[in-house]
Amino acid sequence: MSSATIEKPSFLKSRLGGLPRPFWALWGGTLVNRLGTMVMPFTGVYLTQSRGLSVTAAGLVMGVFGAGSLLSQFVAGVLTDRIGRRATLSGGMLATAAAMLALGYSASLPAILASMFVLGLVIDVYRPASNALVADLVSPEERPRAYGLLFWGINLGYAVGMTAGGWLAGLGFVWLFWIDALSSVVFAVLVWRAVPETRPAGSHKSGGFGVVLRDRVMVGFTLVALGNALVYSQTMTMLPVAMTQVVKLSPGEFGLAMALNGVLIVIVQPLVSEWLGRRDPARTFALGLAVMGAGFAMTAFVTSTLGLAVTIAVWTAGEIVTAGIPGAVVAALAPAELRGRYAGLFGFAWSLSAVLAPLLGGPLLELGAGVLWFTIGGVGVASAAGMLLLGPAIRRR
């Protein structure tokens, strides 16, 4: 047989092939949902400019949202295991659409507070269900690649949604709420029609979160995930403040530098996800955490847009390395009947970081930019060390 007749896998097939059709329905729904994610990045602007709230009142509203978010992952984890992955994801998206429209038409502070609490409770209900679906549908060998592709789709959709959202906000904030709600409904319908229910038989009879909390390896991994989340959350909390108020970059310069994060993820992450998926997850995750920590520590020396871009490139490289690993680790640690609860505990780490990151970052920044960024870098390195310590136990699973 001549070499010309030997079929070689194409570039796209090697990176996108081998995953079941329901996974791609989930991926497509996630992409659509992120394309429509326009409200949350502009919430502060909406509350202060469109609704005329003071900064203090807007902070109270965001705090109420955070309280709902803390509860959501535990509730979603239980629902995912008890009523099913598909019902939880679709129901959560429909509830998100309703809460979005309620917030968009709320004029009084009590109505805004109630809408934001409900939105915090339901907006991320899909995460444990989505994580459990991937674990149910995809073989262990392919999970890092599958979770990495979801991460890539989220970033692709978010980048486009942010750009469109900024333009639409100029036409009227109500457009943001309607598009966000519509994208949530499309996600719900697509999953309901194209993704089968994968909940294992008898999982509705499984124990509560106490079973998960007795798993020391999972609790340890959740603490590592919290460290990772605290580091990354600075991109949305203290990094904009430090760059505009301390370094004196304009919002346009800061936005231009931050765009590099999305560009690198969209271009680089699909190229390396297959190769990273074949590496030891604990060591790879630890490497990514350490690189992210180093990138944020370097921020202490930033004095220009170019300098900020360099640090963003470094911590984005770490983010790309870690992309598909956490979901695969949680899926490996969780018994099939408890995948929703395990994913819920992991999601709680990210919800908690959204509350803790500004509370910790603000006082640290007041002490000095160096204090903040070296501390954040230290959290990243400590999380990497913790992951290496957990490595043997994770490999035994």
From TrEMBL:
Main location: membrane
Domain annotation Major facilitator superfamily (MFS) profile: ranges: 22-395
Keywords attached to this entry: Cell membrane, Membrane, Transmembrane, Transmembrane helix, Transport
Presence of keyword Transport: yes
Transmembrane segments: 23-47, 53-75, 111-129, 149-169, 175-195, 216-234, 254-272, 284-306, 312-333, 345-365, 371-391
Entry's localization field: Cell membrane
Gene3D superfamilies membership: MFS general substrate transporter like domains
This protein's record includes keyword Membrane: yes
Membrane topology: Multi-pass membrane protein
InterPro entries assigned: MFS (IPR011701), MFS_dom (IPR020846), MFS_trans_sf (IPR036259), MFS_Transporters (IPR050171)
Name of this protein: MDR family MFS transporter
Species annotation: Nonomuraea insulae
Lineage of source species: Bacteria, Bacillati, Actinomycetota, Actinomycetes, Streptosporangiales
